[in-house]
Amino acid sequence: MPTPEPGSDAWLLQVNEEIVDPERPIIDPHHHLWKKRFGRDYLLPELWADTSSGHNVQKTMFMECRAFYLREGPDYLRPLGETTLISELATESETEKAKATIAGIIAHADLTLAADAEDQLIELLEKHEEICKGKFRGIRHAGARDKRPEDLLIPGAAPPYLYGKESFRKGLRLLASRNLTYDTWHYHHQNLDFLDLARDVPECTMILDHFGTPLGVGAYRYCKDEIYQEWKQEVAEIAKCKNVYAKLGGLAMPDNGFGWDKADSPPSSDEFLAKQKKYYLHMIDCFGPERCMFESNFPVDRLSVNYHVLWNAFKKMTADFSEEEKHAMFYGTAEKVYSL
After folding, report:
1. Number of domains making up the chain
2. CA 126, CA 180: separation in Å to the nearest integer?
């Protein structure tokens, strides 16, 4: 029998585990929805198949992913296509009381519009608010950019040094004035740029996605230990910025270089822990549980690991934490930061 294709349902089903601590309430604060990426759809049925696989996932947060954009009209308004469809799916998710509800939406906006077209940015934010029917929580305008995008499966498309642009920082201040959050995604070599940004705009609540994405492929393939040591120091400095919260997840993307996306079978929760636990515990040690929230980053991390296995790993790595600390990381921090 041929080996199942990595990332396929058959491949993921090779690992099936008993659920750890199945009653624990969970908010998954970071997932995407789209059509025909990585060879498959990931919409409400697929999301529910994962969130209903054993853990008590009660609420989720949709994270912008440049899906369903409008194909006509002004460029700055095209992200409204995504929020329109996602808002419809969020409303639909409320009809099944026994399944996870999409309780919040993070949309996209070009924050650099704040410099010369602030009225356009405000118009877009107001339309996001109207369309999302009370579920609009903030913006992600990712800063991810690498000098060798051809080495990456998911290359960031940000302009050079986005975080340093005053127009961008003005956009963050506008978000803060409207009580909206900012989610960030960048690569490990941009952590110091993000640190400068967080220090300069302390009034804006920022969420650091995916550990600052330590890369492990291409030019970075053979320097993981060096990157890890630098990452540790930079994360510790970022954590001193009290306006920054940390999402714990998104470290199983193929570009992180752990290689599970090319393996004959996905990792068990114990195998996952053996490779990644040190990253998680360092982040928790720096930020504290009250500023950390576990995330799935599905379906991107689905290319490497099964949903129920991932959350088993999260629960195993925090087994020795107090009940209050566990509740913060699995539910409370996301509930607080995103007003869920």
Report:
1. 1
2. 12
From the list 96, 84, 73, the residue with the least C-alpha distance to 33 is 84
pLDDT digits (tens, 9 = 90+) for 69-105: 999 999 999 999 999 999 999 999 999 999 999 999 9
The DSSP string of 119-152 is HHHHHHHHHHHHHHTT-EEEEE------S-GGG-
Q: Residue 2 burial by CB count (10 A; 0-12/13-18/19+): exposed, middle or buried?
A: exposed
pTM of structure: 0.96
Residue 267 lies in a domain: yes
pLDDT at 229: 97
CB within 8 A of 252, min separation 6: which ones? 258, 260, 272, 276, 297, 301, 303, 304, 305, 310
Q: Which residues, including other chains, have CB under 8 Å from residue 214's CB and lie 6 or more apart?
A: 187, 188, 224, 227, 228, 231, 251, 256, 279
Residue 253: how many other CB atoms lie within 10 Å: 23
For residue 41, the 8-state DSSP code is: E
- Alpha-carbon distance of 244 to 260, in angstroms, equals 30
Is 19 a domain residue?
A: no
CATH code, 169: 3.20.20.140
pLDDT band, residue 1 (cuts 50/70/90): low
Residue 31 CA to residue 47 CA, distance in Å, equals 9
For residue 137, give every residue at least 6 positions away whose Cβ sits within 8 Å of its Cβ, in sequence order, or none. 61, 104, 105, 106, 180, 181, 338, 339
* pLDDT tens figures, 21-75: 999 999 999 999 999 999 899 999 999 999 999 999 999 999 999 999 999 999 9
Whether residue 182 contacts residue 206, with contact meaning beta carbons closer than 8 Å, is answered with yes
Strands 136-140, 101-107: pairing kind: parallel
| Domain with 251 in it | 24-337
Contact (CB, 8 A) for 139 and 79? no
Q: Tokens representing 7?
A: 């990332």
Quote the CA–CA distance of 284 and 188 in Å, as a whole number.
18
Other C-beta atoms within 10 Å of 204: how many? 22
Residue 216 included in any domain: yes
Q: Please report whether residue 129 resides in a domain.
A: yes
